[in-house]
Design goal:
alpha+beta, BirA Bifunctional Protein, domain 2, Rossmann fold, 5-stranded mixed β-sheet, RNA-binding
RNA sequence: GUGGUUGUAGCUCAGUUGGCAGAGCCCCGGAUUGUGGUUCCGGUGGUCGUGGGUUCGAGUCCCAUCAGCCACCCCA
């Protein structure tokens, strides 16, 4: 069998995968609700120029990883969004949110980067993220970190993640440091081998190089913290104090650099603890006070984060599968209409009912019920249809009872609850659907 | 984008110096015509990732290509 396959780095999420995805997404939704974030959905396609300048002309993302194409002859160059912070800020400005700040927004969606795929790195990948627009205060930064910490707790992965924070300073401080770094690496280029070339394009990255020689040179490189002025320091001190107060452990990591140019002051990253591999960043974010102006808007500070759903889901245990309350079997065609009627009646009462599709004798259908993990099998044949009754078989122990149409839901619930009452129409049983669980 | 490695049934994998493509699980049927799970018996399912080449003969050797994974690089 040769079917046309999915393109490289794009994967299908199948029914067996999605319970974990939904668990992560629901937990995130709950957290966002707790902090008052509103959901936003922006187009997957944007003008390429929106990203080019904001993310940094010389970042690898913009130079090599964006999916670009011309929108018709002589049309605009469009890009599949590689991230969502820039589009979110764009949408906020376009819809006038900057007149009613602060705004808390969260999003969920597919992003696209043309990288060489690996586990945890896909060309179409999924992010959930959040932004606070119009808030200068360090408490906004802290709030977002606490939100993510809460999410990890809720999902039971908090023990496996560690938090690193850094302070990038304002644009001026950052530029000054970058230049000093370049000079430092240039001066020591002879000792660094191939890495030396990267000093010009991305000197910050050299600080965490794994090459021993480069690491040696990096050890006495100029520190960004030496460039920071009082305002920058006060901001990050306040963020750190909030974290400490809240009991969120973190490490200050001067080598923590975000890949996108728009960040300033606080940046943070959650990564998998005890794993030196590089594909271990689960969630990253920071402050971007200059972004709004860069895309033509008014001054509007902001901070946000994005988490990689593909990577997060990878950490989650398989939740127990969802099994139906009832699996409806049909032994004779003449009972089909009654069976359908009964199924709807049970669903009205909140029971999940899977109907057998296809033929086969009762044994075969019960096998299906067993394979589905059904709690009960509903057996309907000509006998039951004629009397408008149903045979309810509890799959765990084979206990069997009969019920008339009207009382079937209550009897099914009683059977599931393990209640021994079985004689007929629930005279001693509980007919109140809501009180039976 | 660079280097490495893997690709055989729906899944997990065997397959010897080149000589008839296999196992377990899953699925289907029967033992059991209206009673599941366990067991027993039987069965379906393969262009051996794809395309070339070498050879009397290729799952096996060679080349190319696609895809997964690993390390770089980069990031969520």
């Amino acid at each position: 069998m040769t079917v046309i396959s999915a393109i490289r780095g794009a994967r299908d999420l199948l029914p067996g995968d999605l319970p974990r995805w939904r668990r992560a997404e629901r937990a995130a939704e709950r957290c966002f609700a707790l902090y008052g974030y509103g959901e936003i959905r922006t187009p997957v396609l944007e003008r390429a120029e929106l990203f080019a300048r904001q993310l940094g002309e010389h970042t690898e993302l913009v130079e090599k990883q964006m999916y670009l194409f011309a929108d018709g002859d002589g049309g605009d160059t469009l890009a599949l969004r590689p991230e969502a912070t820039v589009p979110t800020v764009r949408a906020a400005l376009q819809s006038g949110m900057h007149r009613n700040l602060p705004a808390r927004l969260w999003y969920r969606g597919a992003m696209f980067r043309r990288e060489r795929p690996q586990r945890g790195r896909y060309r179409q990948f999924w992010q959930i993220g959040a932004e606070i627009l119009g808030a200068q205060s360090p408490s906004a930064d802290a709030e977002q970190i606490l939100l993510t910490a809460r999410l990890w707790r809720e999902l039971g992965v908090d023990g496996r993640l560690r938090l690193a924070v850094n302070n990038l300073g304002d644009g001026e401080e950052r530029a000054r440091h970058r230049e000093k770094l370049r000079e430092h690496f240039r001066a020591n280029a002879a000792e660094m081998g191939e890495d030396a070339a990267r000093a010009e394009t991305n000197p910050l990255r050299l600080l965490e190089s794994r090459d021993a020689k480069t690491a040696a040179v990096a050890r006495d490189a100029p520190k960004l913290s030496d460039e920071l002025g009082d305002a920058s320091r006060k901001h990050s001190d306040a963020v750190c104090e909030s974290l400490t107060r809240a009991g969120v452990a973190f490490s200050q990591d001067e080598t923590l650099v975000r890949g996108l140019d728009y960040y300033n002051l606080t940046v943070f990253e959650w990564s998998l603890a005890g794993d030196d591999r590089r594909q271990n960043a689960l969630c990253g974010g920071g402050r971007y006070d200059g972004l709004s102006q860069q895309i033509g808007g008014p001054p509007m500070p902001g901070c946000g984060f994005a988490l990689g759903l593909d990577r997060l889901v990878d950490l989650l245990a398989e939740p127990p599968r969802e099994t139906p309350d009832c699996f409806l079997t049909l032994t004779e065609e003449c009972a089909r209409e009654f069976a359908g009627e009964l199924a709807e009646h049970c669903r009205d009462a909140g029971l999940t009912v899977w109907r057998h599709i296809g033929g086969g004798n009762l044994a075969r259908q019960l096998k299906k019920a067993d394979a589905a993990g059904a709690k009960t099998a509903l057996i309907i044949g000509s006998r039951e249809a004629a009397a408008r009754r149903v045979t309810i078989k509890r799959m765990s122990d084979g206990d069997q009872r009969e019920a008339e149409f009207a009382k079937a839901p209550a009897q099914i619930k009683a059977a599931i609850a393990g209640d021994g009452v079985r004689d007929g129409d629930g005279d001693g049983g509980n007919n109140n659907d809501d009180s039976v669980n």
